[in-house]
Amino acid sequence: MKPTTQRMRLPGPTSVPERVRQALAEPALNHRGPEFREIVRETEEMIKRVYRTSGDVFFFACSGTGGMEAALVNTLAPGERVLILENGQFGSRFAAIAKGLGAQVDTLEAEWGTAIDPEAVLRRVKEQDYHAVTVIHNESSTGAVNDLKALGEIMKDRSGLLIVDAVSSLGAIDVQQENWHLDVVVGASQKAIMCPPGVATVSVNAKAWEVISRDTQTPRFFFDIRKAKASLDKNETPYTTPTSLVVAMRESLRMIHEEGLENVLARHERLSSALRAGCVAMGLKLFPTSPVISNAVTALHVPDGLEGGQIVKHLYNEYNTVIGGSRNRLNGRVIRIGTMGDFDADDILGDVYYLGRTLQDLGVDADLGAGAAAAAEVLAK
Ligand SMILES: Cc1ncc(COP(=O)(O)O)c(C=O)c1O
Q1: How far is residue 179 from each of residues 120, 156, 176, 318, measured CA to CA in Å?
Q2: Pocket of ligand 1, beta carbon within 6 A
Q3: Peptide bond before 13: cis, by omega within 30 degrees of 0?
Q4: 87 pLDDT more than 80
Q5: Is the pTM of this model over 0.85?
Q6: Which ligand 1 atom is at minimum distance from the Cα of 139?
């Protein structure tokens, strides 16, 4: 019963579709030649439509964390005060980066699995002027989604910036940079954008640009968006572009727009709902309790008596299926399945089946039939 090909079901990096893999195999290009500049132009135009912005989106040769650092290093000077909204592992990462830059870091924490309460943010920003507020849209470590629209409303008429990590939501959960007044939004290639890891995207609006273009003492070189802007105006990056990854991203963005962004988001919603329904019907419990639960990652409590690593290992060894555990304070207690990018109904039914089999193999009384039926019912809607 072991699948012959590996089932890549991580919450990133995600499976790369055949068309994108073919694009990765294209011959090398001059990163400053006319062909590649046209590719950058087209990729830029298409990714803006995913961000729903008319502002610039910058490409950096790094993982998502580099994008987070780029967002902060360009907007915060040492000593400036930042409010970090922290309801999971990646919120903590923003705090660590800001501390590293010498900012004065305040945090507003919410229990992992819950969302940040916008009212609590409003109270904090009324008490204290913040140079910036950071938030993780989709906390991949817990499956909780924060309310960007409400936070944008709070920050739009204040001088402070709203800096958003949309690494695991962009292309899976709606992000409306312009309508929601999001000043800086970070994405990455390896999640719902369906490419291999290696490119972070950082989108900035006019309010953010005013701050970015200041002359401050903040050390910045590779991630200096002022230099990136001068290059982007020529459809280039300041330093050698990871050309193959950008060619791949052009192809994945073409796929997204061919399907239609609204349809892509609706597919994520339908498929992830089906997976959640299937898991719950098998007797598993969802980890997040936030008002909005992620359509990009399904985070589940590990049943009593088991350790998360056992499930992850068994799925890999016996069913050729790769899912995530937790590499943080939830270690051993939460497992996570990606529902991002290139996946469909057959993946969801496979997830329910192989997870159910795994639980049974490990001695849990999981009702596989009920799980499959519940998932199929949502899929059939
Ligand atoms: C929400 C979020 N932010 C940031 C990151 C960090 O990205 P990377 O691992 O590409 O550096 C991740 C990675 O999983 C993520 O899910």
Answers
A1: 22, 11, 6, 47
A2: 12, 63-65, 90, 136, 138, 140, 165, 167-168, 188, 197
A3: yes
A4: yes
A5: yes
A6: 1
